[in-house]
Amino acid sequence: MVSKNQIKLISSLHQKKQRFANQLFFAEGVKVIQELLQSNFELEHLYTTLNDFEAVQPSKRTLINEQELKKISALTTPNSCLAVFKIPAENKVIDSGLIVALDDIRDPGNLGTILRLCDWFGIKQIVCSKETVDIYNPKVVQATMGSIARVNVNYVDLKTFINQTNLPVFGTFMDGENIYQSNLPQNGIIVMGNEANGISAEIENIVTSRLTIPRFGDLQKTESLNVATATAIILSEFKRNS
Amino acid sequence: MVSKNQIKLISSLHQKKQRFANQLFFAEGVKVIQELLQSNFELEHLYTTLNDFEAVQPSKRTLINEQELKKISALTTPNSCLAVFKIPAENKVIDSGLIVALDDIRDPGNLGTILRLCDWFGIKQIVCSKETVDIYNPKVVQATMGSIARVNVNYVDLKTFINQTNLPVFGTFMDGENIYQSNLPQNGIIVMGNEANGISAEIENIVTSRLTIPRFGDLQKTESLNVATATAIILSEFKRNS
């Protein structure tokens, strides 16, 4: 059984402020929870409707029914389990290799998808502007499918961070160099901009290489790419010849 | 003002069965509606909270307030307008060039994003299995950002369709040829599989070229790519040298 206080705590973790105050977040579903358990995340408590997760010590595991799960879940169709984890201390930024810098990504699904892409392409570090959606937002955690355990994410003042590295800075713009014909190094910062406004003027000023993903459709009418699919194409280009 | 009957009709269009029975669908937001108006879609009626869309004849335009919009909108945060359009007759399949074939894509956001990608990369034709989510689902229409007006979409029996063309058939699998080292033609069918199960066995049997997108992360643990980001990478590879 899950107590009223536990329900209250988990519900409060839907809000960033409360996650920060309690230094806790939650994840749902066997796959994501397993990934987090197998990595360095410290389990606070697991709630499950099944007799699974035998490896978790009984004092940290509560069998609940589906109605109880529905009360604490952030999903419209709840999975079979929900786990509360401690938010780990931020690791030091890994300032070599390829770094993805996110300039105010607001949509949780986009951030989760970008994290999953970084994991796929072996990118070890994401730096986010302070306005970027919180990585421990339940929708982000869900969309990462467990990748959250394998990519280092830091929230920084993006301008200060970029200025203090000596890495080349890549951004995509309408007037950039054709990315398919560019020489792309294995060290550098790849900036991805906000869903509505793109890369901010402040960051655009410190971009050293302006790239573009060529369009093949009707040039007058075709909509821009979604930021997650643009990231997919850009990371694929950076890694394909590496 | 929007009448009770109009509210009832628009609400019913959230369901595929009712869209089919009425041969109507709806779109929301200035950008998407403008794109549909400028293309071949026939407007049934426009509901707007602003004095905009002057080009639309007054008999087809109703000024409504925000509460009324909330009643008919499918969005949590409604835009300023909603328009009901006639579902056009299905065009003939364009069976040359590159065709994207969707084998049971269930998520509306994924279908909308794939449509937008096809538009970007100049792919003129998508064929969907009958189990693929309906293109006139409000969430699909929204995610396409207007691209729905520029890519031809047909629902077919995928196996029969593929068998009657003489085009090469591409699919991505764990054991395929490295897509970065493959010779990719400008004619062919690119099959993308279901979110959970990938390409079905029936379709896998008629794939002529097995491809793979190489992983660069931890090979033991990294999750698969989301189908929309995989489509982005594959279309980029097919078009980059075209």
From TrEMBL, chains A, B:
It comes from the Bacteria. Gene3D superfamilies: 3.30.1330.30, 3.40.1280.10. Pfam families: MRM3-like_sub_bind, SpoU_methylase. Residues 5-83 form the MRM3-like substrate binding domain. GO terms for molecular function: RNA binding; RNA methyltransferase activity. Residues 98-235 form the tRNA/rRNA methyltransferase SpoU type domain. Keywords: Methyltransferase, Transferase. Belongs to the class IV-like SAM-binding methyltransferase superfamily. RNA methyltransferase TrmH family. SUPFAM superfamilies: alpha/beta knot (SSF75217), L30e-like (SSF55315). PANTHER family: RRNA METHYLTRANSFERASE 3, RRNA METHYLTRANSFERASE 3, MITOCHONDRIAL. This is RNA methyltransferase. One of its GO terms (biological process) is RNA processing.
